[in-house]
Amino acid sequence: MSWETVVGLEIHAHLKTRTKMFCRCETGFGEPPNTRTCPVCLAHPGTLPVPNRRAVEWTVKLGLALGCDIPARAVFHRKNYFYPDLPKGYQISQYDEPLCVDGRFVVPGEERDLEIGIVRAHLEEDAAKTVHVAGAGGRIVGATRSLVDFNRGGTPLVEIVTQPDLRSAEEARRFLQLLRQTIVELGISDAEMEKGTLRCDANVSVRLPGEDYRTRWELKNMNSFSFIARGIDAAVRAQIALHEAGEEVVQETYDYDADADTLTPHRSKEEAEDYRYFPEPDLVPVEPARELVERLRAELPELPWARIGRHAGELGMADAWALVMTEREASYDGLVEADVEPRAAFNFAMNQSIPPNADLRELARVVKEPDLTRAGIERAVAASANPGFTADEFLAEKSVSDTAELEPLIERILAANPGQVEAYRGGKEGLLGFFVGQAMKETGGKANPKVLNELIREKLKA
User: Is it true that domain 403-461 has CATH number 1.10.10.410?
Assistant: First the structure.
């Protein structure tokens, strides 16, 4: 049967404010356990929360970048559940009146762009961190005891909830990569999965074409984009097997073990009513001023998805993605502005470690000179951030492109390596790099690689 994958994501990102959401404890990563705490975030009796204004503004800014509407009123709620990492016995979160609603996020693609619906982006406090001692991979399974570090408790956390619009693990991975890039570029979060400042849960189900949604599983504790994709694929395989065997798929929460590529049931999946939400009585509603919303909207930069679409016309979609998802885009833009052809600018920016404060207009002269030696180019790049840098001293370092000079050298190298010549002619064309490397070594790196490749291919075909 032709099963369709259905995925919705819940993404949590720590906001990198100086202080926590409802108290003035400083935030931070890697501090000694339980050293960033106070009576408020430890829920001592009689303490009251005070909202972090910057966290509210940054959440609104993110919502605007996600194409969300910003309602005139948002309300903090108590989400009630008991767990050792939640000292109050509830989490201050948002429920039916969040800060940001009804967004659309575009993921550019080769054949078509994906538009992923954003249900909401809301602001809450993070729980503390539970450390499971002696458990495999830090998990509760097999642990001898569990400890709680309250440093993280109370950190501002924005949760983004998508519509179930993703139809494959690969779509989910690309969406998450682009979303992370957007969050980082807004300057509101480091969004590092290995540090836990970006976390993602995946709601996964399958259905037959034309069907309504079937029962879903929620996958938790996945700490990389590739693991999330693999976890989704594992859940899809398992659910299809259950459906085709005529067995019931029960709504549950699962942990994904990337090493074993297995899913382990964690607990039954809660619904909203299980949390007994009610408005937080110690906080008044948040009413973002329209002037604030418009100011934040005006501060938005050109977003990554839009830049990918713009660069795709020059470079193709795959290279446009690669460019935007690295730190090389500014160098590329500077070289193009200095009249370097886009493809040449892309190749140079992606293959050279250009300093962030390089004189790109002068460096463009180096890029546009086709006959420079590799060593000369690398020296020019290294010097490009120096005061008074000029390309003139490097432009004289021309590579050897004279075929009359290179042909005897190539013939000597081929004659000295008959075994490799025979292997190349037998189909091992990767050996071309060996012959080019030998020629570059013989010329001290001064031979033109493009000319070398063409000449060596011709000689090997003869």
Answer: yes
